[in-house]
Design goal:
Elements (H helix, E strand, L loop, with lengths): L6 E2 L5 E7 L3 E4 L3 E4 L2 E7 L5 E6 L2 E8 L2 E7 L7 E6 L6 E4 L4 E6 L4 E8 L7 E3 L4 H10 L8
Antiparallel strand pairs: 1-2, 2-5, 3-4, 5-12, 6-11, 6-13, 7-10, 7-12, 8-9, 8-11
Organism: Rubritalea spongiae
Protein name: Cupin domain-containing protein
Pfam families: Cupin_5
């Protein structure tokens, strides 16, 4: 059964934080952060997780659904990596490096994933590409077919 108490997320889809470590760490550019956070994140058919980046590493884990396409971009190169998490590919997790742009769309219907962030996620460490005109324009120039993810 899919979680029913999810809230809308600014990048699209719905989420619920299910873990926030009580252990704190000092991060040079971020200050004190929880060591780890984890959320459930759900996208329905036709929904996308718009391009965004966080100030920590993020691990995506596929829990339910046919799968997803995870787009990852370093913000400079001409190429965007496309990682498929699915039973068919026998790939169920992927780590997005710190400060890399990422976007996701389901392969078919509803997809439920878990996202772990370390050091822990804080919304003030979160940036949507649509708020960064220069990066949005550069991505549109290099990969116009991905404009729907901005």
């Amino acid at each position: 059964m899919l979680p029913t108490d999810l809230e809308p997320h600014p990048e699209g889809g719905k989420y619920k934080e299910v873990f926030r470590s009580i252990h704190k760490i000092d991060c040079p550019n971020l200050g004190k952060r929880s060591a780890l956070t984890h959320i459930y994140f759900q996208l329905d058919k036709g929904e996308v997780s718009a391009f965004h980046k966080v100030s920590s590493e993020e691990v995506w884990n596929l829990y339910r659904g046919e799968g997803l396409r995870l787009y990852q971009w370093d913000g400079e190169s001409d190429e965007v990596s496309i990682i498929e998490l699915s039973v068919q590919k026998n790939q169920f997790c992927h780590v997005v490096p710190t400060h890399h742009w990422q976007a996701v769309e389901p392969l078919d219907d509803i997809v439920l994933v878990g996202c772990s962030v370390a050091p822990g996620f804080e919304f003030n460490d979160f940036t949507l590409m649509r708020d960064c005109i220069g990066h949005a324009d550069l991505l549109k120039k290099h990969q116009p077919s991905l404009s729907h993810l901005i």
